[in-house]
Amino acid sequence: MPVSDPIRLYPGAGGFPMDPAALFGRAAPLALEVGFGKGTFLAGIADEHADWNLIGVEIAAASLSRGIGRVRRDGLENVRLLCADARVLVHDMLPERSIHRVYVNFPD
What we know:
Layout: H1 20-24, E1 30-34, H2 40-48, E2 53-58, H3 61-74, E3 79-83, H4 86-93, E4 101-104
Parallel strand pairs: 1-2, 1-4, 2-3
């Protein structure tokens, strides 16, 4: 993950499976939101569960940009965002049994 953008995850940076604790700088339950759109729900969960690490995954680049803006505005340290198909994240990028909770509201 480039130093210039600690919020965005980049597939292939750091190898697979990724270490969730290393991504966030702490060990914590990992939750995912598939299709975070504008990031409103994700930001609410991140604020409500500051003790969780959250990854938002979205296939639309415009949604990724909006999500990054929201995470920065809200000062959410426990969120990372990925522009990719959620299946790639779950099957290839994360270790088995590493996900605590998954939210799927309105995915494409």
